[in-house]
Amino acid sequence: MKTDGAGPPATPDARAADDVVPELLERARLWLNEDPDADTRAELEALLTRPEGPALAELQDRFSGLLTFGTAGLRGALAAGPNRMNRAVVIRTSAALATFLNRHAGRTAVVGYDARHKSDVFARDTAAVLAGAGIRTLLLPRPLPTPVLAFAVRHLGLDAGVMVTASHNPRQDNGYKVYLAPGSQLNSPADAEITHLMGEVGPLASVPKKESWRVLGEEVVEAYLKRVAALPSPDSPRDLAIAYTPLHGVGRDVLLAALKRAGFAAPQVVAAQGDPDPDFPTVAFPNPEEPGAMDLALQLAAEQGSDIVLAHDPDADRCAVACGGRVLRGDEVGALLAIHLLRRDPLREGTFATSIVSSMLLARIAQAHDVPYAETLTGFKWIARVDGLRFGYEEALGYCVDPDAVLDKDGIAAALLVAELAASLKADGRTLLDLLDEIAREYGVHATDQLTVRCADPADLQTLMRGLRSAPPSTLGGRSVQSAEDLSRGLGGLPATDALRYRMQGGARVIVRPSGTEPKLKVYLEVVVPVQDGDVSSARRAGRVELEELKRDVSRAVGLT
Fold first, then answer.
1. Residue ranges covered by each domain of the chain
2. Backbone dihedral region of 317: left (phi > 0), alpha (psi from -120 to 50 degrees) or beta?
3. For the chain, how long is the longest CA-to-CA vector?
4. What does the alpha-carbon distance between residue 407 and residue 398 come to, in Å, rounded to a whole number?
5. How far apart are CA 256 and CA 373, in angstroms?
6. What's the confidence (pLDDT) of residue 260?
């Protein structure tokens, strides 16, 4: 470090203060002057009181860029600044969306929201801005699952929808998800156009707002319930004991109403997690994929002798399933639903689709049943684009089982079909686990797992990806790497995406990509083990051993060990 010989070397903070701090503080003060929220104004004022050390680093992060549309819309921590979720960001985003809709002859929209902190406030801001731009705007009547919002766009024939939710993100986050006709999530190139328009929004005071938006009654919820309750065949069995948790989210009342209308007995609900609570007090992360998140539901199922456990994330677009005390992986539930739909309606046409990070098992099932199959990039905004979609799923507990009604993942609808399948198997003296064994005997054990690397600084994600690109591994899990594909080049007919895919001997596969919703690197592992002499248990044990070997090698490759 250079010095001028007249004192100690300049610290990084001092150099930052000389170069960028005055401009940073000016931007923060300008933001403060037009921030419409007393809560975020107060916490930003506190940072500006002593803009040094951790406070300065926090300001730099908040004002280093803009929240951008990722895999599932905007998501960020609730706080002041353009790189956080707050009323100012919501108003600017809504103004940009309104301009986009007016440019493309969009005249109608619906807004929904979950029960997270500020969700109702953000929803009203969104409705007021859209209405102020001349968009006929409807607001859902209360906090409701995301699938109800997606259904409303399609059912009411609207041009757009906005769902205020951070889905399964940590408690400090919120988000803003956009749907365009015919009810699918915002995708390219519309996302880039709206992002550009966000930069053209002037002072917040200049954004027109009107209170002419209308709150819908319960009719749209009734229409949704009628649709999902009709998904199970009327003559299929209904004898099933269910334990359920909404993980402090908004799924409980809608699911219970749907199950009742479909003829199932009311499930036992985890009392401590039944009511919506934006603080999610019983879980570290409100995501049923996270270790421990379903422990209370599993305990309840054991006490009550339940046949299955169902769980939703806070906005109920994802559905987790457990049976026999074991939480099923998303890929397992995807395979179960695929087999169920194919056997129940063997003559129905349509494409079965999943994403590149999900198991290869669905491709084998589709091939064996001679039905079209498609593979897409990560996220339902891509799966929804598949022509003639009949069933789409993603390993992260997302299932689209009724695309004519909800062209997105729908945890409520998926739960109804899982219940139908489990009840049908129970009538034959079998369980979901028995059907999984049957699938394994026919297609081999497709053992999957994940490795997650959380990063405090999003820039660290790109550092990890650059390291893998510059020095790809030659072996993983004791298998030689047969191909190392950089999907940022748009391989295999897929659009370019920031991901790496390694294929190994014997059908094993590893995919590495930065998360589109949180600052973490996600690694997807899969090995395929043939079942010898019908011995599924031995094949599963072998798969677990191979996955652990693969996980150790991948951990070393990304620098974790």
1. 15-64, 70-206, 223-441, 444-557
2. alpha
3. 88
4. 12
5. 33
6. 98
**DSSP percent split of the chain into helix, strand, coil, nearest 5:** 40, 20, 40
Single pTM value for the model: 0.92
Helix (H, G, I), strand (E, B) or coil at 275: coil
3-state SS record for 200-238? CCCCHHHCCCCCCCEECCCHHHHHHHHHHHCCCCCCCCC
Distance separating alpha carbons of residues 99 and 104, to the nearest angstrom: 9
Burial class (CB in 10 A: 0-12, 13-18, 19+), 60: middle
Neighbours of 261 (CB within 10 A): 14
pLDDT in tens, 247-296: 999 999 999 999 999 999 999 999 999 999 999 999 999 999 999 999 99
Count CA atoms within 13 Å of residue 114 on its CB side: 35
Strand partners, 173: 77
> What does the alpha-carbon distance between residue 523 and residue 314 come to, in Å, rounded to a whole number?
24
Instruction: State in words which class domain 444-557 has.
Output: alpha beta
Q: Tell me, which fold does domain 223-441 have in CATH?
A: Alpha-D-Glucose-1,6-Bisphosphate; Chain A, domain 3 (3.40.120)
Query: Which of 167, 184, 355, 358 is labelled catalytic?
Result: 167
C-alpha closest to that of 153 among 101, 110, 107: 110
Looking at per-residue pLDDT, the higher value among 478 and 82 belongs to: 82
What average pLDDT score do residues 161-177 get?
96
Is 167 a residue of the active site?
A: yes
- Measured between alpha carbons, how far is 145 from 316 in angstroms, rounded to an integer? 5
Length of the chain: 561
∠ CA(362), CA(366), CA(448), 5° rounding? 15
The DSSP-derived string for 443-509 is H-EEEEEEEEEE-SSTHHHHHHHHHHHHS--SEETTEEEEEEEEGGG-GGGPPP-S-EEEEEGGG-E
Q: Which residues are 454's β-sheet partners?
A: 520
Same-fold call for 70-206 versus 223-441:
yes
Continuous segment of H or E residues that includes residue 163:
strand 160-164
The superfamily (CATH) of domain 70-206 is Alpha-D-Glucose-1,6-Bisphosphate, subunit A, domain 3 (3.40.120.10)
Strands (DSSP E) along 99-146, which ranges? 108-113, 136-139
Q: With helix as H, strand as E and coil as C, how does 276-302 read?
A: CCCCCCCCCCCCCCCCCCCHHHHHHHH
